[in-house]
Design brief:
The complex is a heterodimer of chains A (about 220) and B (about 280). Chain A has about 220 residues and is mostly helical. Chain A has one domain: MetI-like fold (Orthogonal Bundle), CATH 1.10.3720.10. Chain A is built from 10 helices and no strands. Chain A has helices spanning about 5-40, 45-60, 65-75, 80-85, 90, 95-120, 125-130, 135-165, 180-190, 190-220. Chain A is flat, with a radius of gyration of 21 Å. The N and C termini of chain A lie far apart (about 50 Å). The relative contact order of chain A is 0.16. Chain B has about 280 residues and is an alpha/beta fold. Chain B has 10 helices and 13 strands. In chain B, strand 9 (about 155-160), helix 6 (about 165-170) and strand 10 (about 175-180) form a beta-alpha-beta unit. The chains are: A mainly alpha (about 220), B alpha/beta (about 280). At the A-B interface, helix 9 of A face helix 3, strand 10 and helix 7 of B.
Chain lengths: ~220, ~280
């Protein structure tokens, strides 16, 4: 075990963690937005809207994240027409390709999490609001959404942790995130065990922080 | 239950037999993604210059060999961890790698070159045909200065953990945006897609891609050798320890060196090089 290599790789890996966290937070931000919209579409009574939303989540939950990144990065890059459009400004950059793939992926899972949370809201809460003469718009914003968010916290916490680990796939499209830099150090030192132990520990620590934060929120907003 | 017991016993026996049968077999690791050095045909079989050369060398050494696939970025760690016994993967002999593993004498020369898409502003860079970084001199300095100016602010793509990456990061051609990929295929794809302003690899890797894909990839600038580009391509072997496996490794290195000599004298290496590269790259 090369302890010197382990300690000297810590600062390099920590600075790469910044990219990992950026990828994670931006993807979760866009993903939550996408997820909320598609959860609402899923609850729509119109069969076409409903099926469209279902198709989206089916597609992105049914294919591996790696395949999605490759299709967006290498696949779209092959379409010559796209390269002459303004879209190429975004798609040219591996960073944005990764964010698009991660957002669409986590958005699909988030929409399912939120949909089931909406469906578990007891009709009594909504009826109570109606009986007080509150408009259905306000019932949605003030009763349904807060309850749905609370209900989905445990599942969404899991999704954040899964997404954190998913960001390691950004290294496959040339991004120097935590995994990317770990692989880079290994490629010059040929010592995978030491470097991956340090990188793994950093991931573990981030998971610990996310997990504790979600636990805290669950407690704070518990119904009891 | 009885059937299950019998089945697992059978499995155990066959596993044991397959291990002992492999005891004297030599495994050679290759990437299978760096044509024409080594790659795979449509049905997934390994083909290429090194795959055929490995078979020839094994025949000369009278060793029973199997060729196994390994991702490029894990090639040296996999050798050290004894997943296979030798590397033949277009791997150049460099001082950096020699710190971790041994190399046989070189069997072929890898000529590196920059490539761009036709019509690129880099197409006209004026440099000598080839520069040798070990020899140095005024011409080399001038060529590197020209390249530094031409590549400033450009994105240059390379496969990860290669001599090409080392060269671009050595500072010889100034500070450039180096983008690294897992395989040469991905470098080629992104060069064609326009994400890379230029790419650096073995010249034959680009000409092979241009020929097979029909993309307008052209070589520019000088061909590179010496310095960070190492001293030719050789067989990578573990550094032997004092134990039984270590002694076997030391013997294997001797065997390979002798076999390469024989293959060279018989003209086998030249013949294979002409077949796969279109010119004699043997050394």
């Amino acid at each position: 075990m090369d302890l010197e290599l382990m300690s000297s790789s810590i600062p390099k890996l920590l600075s790469a963690t910044v990219i990992t966290l950026k990828l994670l937070s931006l993807s979760l931000f866009f993903g939550l937005f996408i997820g909320l919209i598609f959860a609402i579409l899923r609850l729509n009574k119109n069969i076409f809207v409903n099926k469209f939303a279902y198709g989206y989540s089916y597609l992105f939950r049914g294919t591996p994240l790696l395949v999605q990144i490759f299709i967006i990065y290498f696949g779209l890059g092959q379409i010559e027409y796209l390269r002459s459009t303004v879209l190429w400004v975004v798609l040219k950059e591996p960073y944005w390709c990764a964010i698009i793939a991660f957002s669409l992926n986590t958005g699909a899972y988030t929409s399912e999490i939120l949909r089931s949370a909406f469906q578990t809201i007891k009709p009594g809460f909504i009826e109570a609001g109606k009986s007080l003469g509150i408009s259905s718009k306000i019932i949605f914003y003030k009763i349904q959404i807060p309850i749905a968010i609370r209900q989905s916290l445990p599942a969404y916490g899991n999704e954040i942790i899964l997404m954190l680990k998913g960001t390691s796939l950004a290294s496959t499209v040339t991004l120097m995130d935590l995994t990317g830099v770990a692989k880079y150090i290994i490629s010059t030192t040929f010592k995978p065990i030491e470097v991956f132990i340090v990188a793994g520990s950093i991931y573990l620590f981030m998971t610990f922080v996310i997990h504790s934060f979600i636990k805290y929120l669950e407690k704070k907003y518990s119904f009891q | 239950m009885n059937i299950l017991k019998k089945f697992s016993l059978g499995l155990l026996i066959s596993l044991f037999l397959s291990i002992s049968a492999n005891a004297d077999k030599i495994k050679i690791g290759t990437e299978g993604a760096y044509p024409p050095w080594n790659s795979k045909d449509a049905s997934g079989n390994l083909i290429g210059f090194e795959v055929e050369l490995a078979k020839e060398l094994c025949t000369i050494m009278k060793h029973d060999c199997t060729i196994v696939e390994q991702d490029w970025d894990g090639m040296i760690p996999a050798l050290v961890m004894r997943k296979f016994d030798a590397i033949m993967a277009g791997m150049s002999i460099t001082d950096e790698r020699m710190k971790t593993i041994n190399f046989s004498q070189g069997y072929a020369d890898e000529v590196a070159s920059l490539a761009v898409m036709k019509g690129s502003s880099l197409e006209g860079i004026d440099t000598p045909e080839g520069i040798n970084l070990t020899l140095g001199g005024g011409d080399v300095k001038k060529a590197l200065k020209t390249l530094t100016g031409a590549l400033a602010g450009k994105t240059v793509c390379v496969q990860t953990a290669t001599i090409h990456q080392n060269f671009l990061e050595s500072g010889d051609v100034g500070k450039i945006d180096v983008r690294t990929y897992k395989t040469q295929d991905e470098v080629n794809l992104d060069l064609a897609a326009g994400r890379c302003d230029a790419a650096l690899a073995a010249a034959v890797a680009f000409t092979d891609y241009a020929e097979k894909s029909g993309k307008a990839v052209v070589l520019v600038g000088p061909t590179f050798s010496g310095g960070a580009f190492g001293n030719g391509v050789g067989v990578g072997i573990r550094k032997g320890g004092d134990d039984a496996i270590g002694k076997k490794d030391a013997k294997l290195l001797k065997d390979f060196n002798r076999a390469i000599n024989t293959a060279r004298k018989k003209g086998i290496i030249s013949k294979l090089a002409v077949k796969w590269f279109g010119f004699d790259a043997s050394m």
